[in-house]
Specification:
single chain, about 500 residues, alpha/beta, Amidase signature (AS) enzymes, eleven-stranded mixed beta sheet, two-stranded antiparallel sheet, globular
Length: about 500
């Protein structure tokens, strides 16, 4: 432990460059770093090298990264030249970003979903959001490990494990789980490998690793950010989203990734509902007069989490918010309908994604994937591929069973669920614990989700932001704020006011 702490201290206080004597990882933000870049106190090359050195030193402890971008420093040099030449692309110019490794990049990095089947798969184009990030001047540092196929693969799994990347570890306690599927993205941000990571969520895959790793995770409305160029599970529920150490950075990043994409028809619904600058909604008075619904099902399962949550509720009341108890949103049948939709859409989405890969990639269908896994000792030596097999059995997405399940889940979770409850009670948002503290990683038993609150927003396709709420021992836990479609401004305002009034986040200690 002393040796690890020494390494961290050396990194924090001794990384020097010609302009800065030290780099304050813990307090660095997109805006503070941006100011230093523009004042000449720091260059993009220096900044990139600082983060690459930190990854090199600490990634062996947490195993958050699958690949480092070999072109990162070249991109940094280009960003420096642009700034010196008067071309400023905005707040993300020169900012290091890490991508979950199910997001396409047309460069020297493969896009794998953590699968050995795609170990050498180079995408033919950048994902839409990657192009937006590059246009904004962001520096893609590398790709993060994930739960393989975004955790839609096995009858049981260990979040953060992939056949290609192995097991990612929680930076607060290294024998604990980082949650997933955006495990590496959450750990990378928590460990200060970057200022911004991009995760993806179908149900819980951004907010759960945010909870387990003590960071902010924002799952936006499905359709606000394009999904083209992202290895899919579900067209109805998938979305990328920012993972950061504070709400402000999440708000800044979100705006740069919005936009209508002709390859993702759902993005058309965001016209007139999206913003380039979400930081305008960050108000310290954001809780005053707000009506918040306590989503009750996650409560009563862990006293330590309940205690932190009701302390949070007390704070929000002290800031002028009203709270109301909400016993249920949707039913178990709603969840079953969602799972049916996921199986159909996983098969359809993967087949379409594989069909667009270069001819050199031998996996051309979900059936090919199943066959590859069955013959690979690492891929099926620990975990099965039951969900892939179940998806193969489904028919096309024109099947009546699929259409009925999709209509049922949306009706019960949208019109008769979130929308109706919020309208009837005039609510501004729902609140709930995001999840339980991280559990010990155990490949035999698999994941232990003691509680969670992601399903209503995930199934509805609505936004959900997870923010640090406190600690159970050495392990962080978060609170979630979720609401109607395209209510990102409202949720950011509430979450920011809570965050700024409580400031619960503490950096990890990498405890053994």
């Amino acid at each position: 432990m002393k040796k690890i702490s020494l390494i961290i201290n050396v990194l924090i206080f001794s990384f020097c460059n010609s302009h800065a004597q030290r780099f304050d990882f813990e307090n660095a933000t997109i805006e503070s770093v941006g100011k230093d870049l523009r004042k000449g106190k720091l260059s993009v090359v220096d900044l990139t090298q600082i983060y690459l050195k930190r990854i090199d030193s600490l990634n062996p402890l947490v195993n958050a990264m699958i690949v480092i971008n070999p072109e990162a420093l070249a991109l940094a040099r280009k960003a420096d030249l642009e700034l010196k030449g008067g071309l400023d692309r905005g707040k993300l110019h020169g900012i290091p970003v890490i991508l979950k490794d199910n997001i396409d990049t047309h460069d020297k990095m493969p896009t794998t979903a953590g699968s050995r089947a795609l170990a050498k798969s180079i995408a033919q184009n950048d994902a839409f959001i990657v192009k937006k990030l590059r246009d904004a001047g962001a520096i893609i540092l590398g790709k993060a490990n994930l739960s393989e196929w975004a955790n839609f693969r096995s009858s049981k799994s260990s979040s953060g494990w992939s056949g290609l990347g192995n097991q990612t570890h929680n930076p607060y306690k290294l024998d604990c789980n980082p949650c997933g599927s955006s495990a590496g993205s959450g750990v990378a941000v928590s460990s200060d490998f970057c200022l911004l990571a991009i995760g993806t969520e179908t149900n819980g895959s951004i907010v759960c690793p945010a909870n387990a790793n003590g960071v902010v995770g924002f799952k936006p409305t499905v359709g606000l950010l394009s999904r083209s160029g992202i290895i899919p599970i579900s067209y109805s529920q998938d979305t990328p989203g920012p993972m950061t150490r504070n709400v402000t950075d999440a708000a800044i990043a979100l705006g740069f990734m919005t936009g209508v994409d002709t390859k993702d028809s759902l993005t058309k619904e965001s016209i007139g509902k999206s913003y380039f600058d979400y930081s305008q909604f960050l108000l310290k008075s954001g809780l005053k007069g707000k009506r918040l619904g306590i989503f009750q099902p996650p409560l009563g399962k862990m006293k330590s989490v309940d205690s932190l949550f009701f302390r949070a509720v007390g704070y929000m009341k002290s800031q002028g918010a009203e709270v109301f108890e909400i016993p249920i949103i949707g039913t178990k049948e709603t969840g079953r309908s969602s799972f049916e939709v996921l199986l159909y859409e996983f098969k359809d989405g993967l087949n379409k994604y594989f069909a667009e890969l270069p001819a050199s990639v031998k996996i051309r269908s979900i059936d090919d994937l199943f066959t590859f896994n069955a013959s690979d000792q690492i891929e099926t030596g620990i975990f099965d591929q039951k969900l892939i097999g179940d998806a193969i059995k489904k028919g096309p997405i024109t099947d009546q069973a699929y259409l009925a399940a999709k209509a049922k889940m949306h009706k019960e979770m949208r019109e008769e669920g979130i929308d109706k409850i919020m309208n009837d009670l005039k609510l501004d948002a729902f609140i709930a614990p995001t999840g339980s503290p991280a559990w010990k990683t155990d490949w035999q038993k698999g994941d232990t989700f003691h509680l969670g609150s992601s399903s209503p927003a995930a199934i509805a396709g609505y936004p959900n932001i997870s923010v640090p709420m406190g600690f159970v021992g050495e392990l962080p836990v978060n609170i979630s704020f979720f609401g109607k479609a395209y209510s990102e401004p409202q949720l950011l305002s509430i979450a920011y006011a809570y965050e700024q009034g409580t400031l619960h986040r503490k950096s990890p200690k990498f405890l053994k």
